[in-house]
Amino acid sequence: MELSFSRSNKPIDQIIAQLIEVSDGIHHPAIIKEMILATLKIGQDVDYLADLKLINRTLREMRYTAKVFAPYRNRKKVTIFGSARTEETDEMYKKCVRFSRILAENGYMVITGGGPGIMQAGNEGAGSENSFAVNIRLPFEQKPNPIMYRNPRLVTYKYFFNRKVAFVKEADAIVVFPGGFGTLDEAMEVFTLIQTGKTSPKPLILMDDKDGYWEHFFNFIKESLLVKGFISGEDFSLFTITNDEKEALKVINIFYSTYHSLRFIENLLVIRLQKALSDEQIAILTVEFPELIKDDNQIRRCEVFPEESDEPDLAHLPRISLLFDHHHYGMLIAFINRINSFWLTT
């Protein structure tokens, strides 16, 4: 029979309902029903075994990822990227150890790729008890470092794309140390995801070395991307370059000093805050960021929306809402930083 997500599939719907009931402890059964239907439709539509294996492995890897990270949902996490080839004697290795150590001391957990080099330094500084490792299975160079070997927060992936989802989805901030093609690939993906709004706004920090690795990159962006119109000036709000691990920590702390999180409800952007904005502060934001506000809409204080009922622990937070122009995610980062600035002391 032809299966549908929007129409009745009797008797398949009844069998799925019985399966969910017998399985017991199923969360969000309506979503699980759709997933089972999708699996059945895949079985009908796809006859190429390699494609079925890829889909199956992807689902299994993402399920396990969600299981590993779930108990730590309320702890902020920082993803650290960098070269697997950085030696333990290298100054950047030592800087990464210091940085991840102060992250752990300030209550953050650290996510790395779980391999050697900068990844090992990140886990070493934070300690195994404050670390995750999202490792990739490769025929060379990448095996779990000794800090994360057999750690319950070690996840090993076959596919890079699943690993990248974990790196970004679970992170509240991302810090990139110098590295090769893999590091640049990871960094560029984060740039793209934040710029296009495919991940929530978060600090993206480029940790520089004494030779100005990221300064050279910055010059390339200005001279080859900005000048030619491939990016806009507001995209420079997407990242921070520093060579100081304490400054990097400060950038992360400040970002979440007032801002908490956001959510889109249809076309409305709802920003959850830890402190309520005054009329004067809202007026300042309206004047300074008119490009963010679409169709002459206004920035308003608002109550929790019914659509947010799946996040009851956030219901108490004060909120503002606006009709957001999706062309300006770089400016949204600046907007959040401006909100935080209202409570910063010099």
Blueprint of the fold:
Layout: H1 12-23, H2 29-45, H3 49-69, E1 77-81, H4 91-105, E2 109-112, H5 118-126, E3 131-136, E4 154-157, H6 160-169, E5 173-176, H7 181-195, E6 204-207, H8 213-226, E7 240-242, H9 245-255, E8 259-265, E9 268-273, H10 279-288, E10 300-302, E11 319-323, H11 329-341
Parallel strand pairs: 1-2, 1-5, 2-3, 3-4, 5-6, 6-7
Antiparallel strand pairs: 8-9, 9-11, 10-11
Features:
Rossmann fold; 11 helices; alpha/beta; seven-stranded parallel beta sheet; 11 strands; four-stranded antiparallel beta sheet
Description of the molecule:
- This protein folds into three domains: 12-70, no CATH class; 73-255, Rossmann fold (3-Layer(aba) Sandwich); 259-341.
- 42% of the residues lie in helices and 15% in strands.
- It contains eleven helices and eleven strands.
- The chain is globular.
- The chain starts with 11 loop residues before the first helix and ends in a 5-residue tail after the last helix.
- The mean pLDDT is 95.
| Strand order in the sheet with the most strands | 4-3-2-1-5-6-7
Low-confidence stretches: none
Summed up, the domain count is 3
Residues in helices, as a percent range: 40-55%
**Tally of extended strands?**
11
**Taking all residues together, what is the mean pLDDT?**
95
Q: What's the CATH topology name of the largest domain?
A: Rossmann fold
Report, as a whole number of angstroms, the end-to-end distance: 68 Å
Strand/helix succession: HHHEHEHEEHEHEHEHEEHEEH
CATH class of the largest domain: Alpha Beta
Beta-strand percentage range? 5-15%
- Contiguous helical run count: 11
Largest sheet: 7 strands, parallel
CATH architecture classification of the largest domain: 3-Layer(aba) Sandwich
Structural class: alpha/beta
